[in-house]
Write a structure and sequence with these properties.
The chain is an alpha+beta fold. The protein has two helices and 13 strands. The strands form three sheets. It has an eight-stranded antiparallel sheet, with no helix packed on it. Strands 4-10-8 form a three-stranded antiparallel sheet, with no helix packed on it. Helix 1 runs antiparallel to helix 2. The radius of gyration is 18 Å and the shape is elongated.
Length: 201
Amino acid sequence: MRYAPGVQRFALPAFLVAAVFAVLAPPLSLVALLAGGFVLWFFRDPERTPSAPGVVSPADGRVSVVREEGEQLRIGVFMNVTDVHVNRAPFDATVERVTHRDGAHLPAFSKESERNERVDVDLSTDDGPAELSLIAGAFARRIHPYVEAGDGLERGQRLGHIDFGSRADVLLPPCYDREDVTVDVGDTLRAGESVVAYRDE
């Protein structure tokens, strides 16, 4: 199994504590082992392949936002604690800018999460400008982008992850409209695999 970068920062201390308590306090050792196992499971990074042509989901989770913003459409995906937290490129693109913005740590599924800490990845595509936003949640404290300005992205490519609970939004290029969106609020998606929008050329 592949894991997201940084997994050892959380898993190793738990396993060290388990080793220390193995003789001194076996019940506590078991708790530490379970905590370490949970961290490994949380940071899992399975292989994904797009299921069909179109814009793929940037995250595992449930669709929490589908709305118009000026001439563009935003699709937001809320990642629960049980979801894979590695994020992927929705389409082929070039990274124009990566911007980190400090903010609150409110529940990522709420409207107030617009004020949360986030990383915005401005993208250039053949269909026009787009944006991917990685938004921290109530328990998330670190957003880890893997990309920087000038990088080329392929659809479904890994581009970052968020520690412990969060949301990922894709702001589609202006040529997409509501009829092109293939998901509704509440739908469950898989990053890099589930198609969220398709435009028939």
